[in-house]
Amino acid sequence: MNTTPGNPSATLFGTADLRGHTVLVAGAERAARRATARYRAQGAEVIAVATPAGLGQVSAVLGRASLLVAVEDGHPGWKILPALCRERRLLLVREEAAHDSGHVTLVGGGPGSADLVTARGLAALARADVVFYDRLGPYGTVAALAPGAELVDVGKLPGHHKVPQRQIEAMIVEAALAGKSVVRLKGGDPFVFGRGGEEVAACAAAGIPVTVVPGITSAVSVPGSSGIPVTHRGVSRMFTVASGHDPFSEAELKHMAGLGGTIVVLMGVATLPQTVAGLLRHGLDPATPAAIVERGFTDSQRSTVARLDGLVPAAAAAGCASPAVIVIGEVVAVGHDALLSGAVADLAGFPGTAAVSL
Predict the structure, then answer these.
(1) Residue 66, class by beta-carbon neighbours within 10 Å (0-12 exposed, 13-18 middle, 19+ buried)?
(2) What is the pTM of this model?
(3) Mind telling me which NCBIfam families this protein's record contains (predicted)?
(4) Could you confirm whether 267 is annotated as catalytic?
């Protein structure tokens, strides 16, 4: 598994409306397959030239082409392309060759906004033959981020997994064994409740190379977008991130209540009553500030703030629903002024609303 690929400055690909334009893609068929698919997806008439010898057969096309894409497939004959482009007054773009063999990249899609995907993640998406994506992360813009790629929705809803995890792993392995460049796009970070470790293990068992591209976890970014820092000097020097998908055990509740610092619960709206009751039962101060931040980094982001002992009725009154991040601790009070002042809109980049009852 490669977590630090050797080319961190990999080319990034923008989107363009190329309808009515002719693009010449120069490179071996397999090496140039992603460039060919991507420019076609952007509306261009794409003429593929697999070898330097083929340039002579498309001389007429050169006169009307807008762009020549040189795919770095290692053939020395392509050295003539810069001079050819100068002569024909053609724009020249160089691109790395697509993976020659099957490869899987786990990409952390961040908290939901496409502009929060890392540069390395965007580059992996642009080169993907197939993308398996979730409902979290930038799922609404996958087609634009991976133009021309096959897109497969394997997202899970609370209590409903339309594609079981083992089947997702089998689909990833099958695509990679077929020689495709596969991206598994997840919300947040692949290794923070993303089952990325299981998918890496499945690929390793099949002998498939895997690269991991980290993402911004919602456990930190979504509270931050509402003005709530998970740590703050003099207030909290630690934070615990837990999955609330299943109810916590008594031992876990006792540990969280007694540890101090900030508690962040992901996927915990359905189990909120059990979580709050258990923390109170094990001695956490009822007056502890708490917040539920829903739909982080979307235009419908909303924060509901209350004392811990009033969080459940406040959530019910507000109709809080997944996806949401629950934050419990004095840091919520630090962000309280931001929630009231309207600074939430500046921090998140979107308008936010707050139901406040501290």
Answers:
(1) middle
(2) 0.82
(3) cobA_cysG_Cterm, PRK06136.1
(4) yes
- Higher per-residue pLDDT: 316 or 99: 316
From the list 180, 186, 189, 267, the catalytic residue is 267
189 is catalytic: no
Q: Where are the beta strands (DSSP E) in 125-261?
A: 130-133, 150-153, 156-157, 160-161, 181-186, 210-213, 239-243
Joined together, the tokens standing for residue 326 give: 């629950």
In one letter, which amino acid is 220? V
pLDDT above 50: residue 11: no
Give me the catalytic one of 156, 171, 254, 309.
Answer: 156
Active site residue 156: yes
pLDDT at position 137, please?
79
* Choice among 73, 134, 189, 256 that is catalytic: 134
More confident site: 163 or 278 = 278
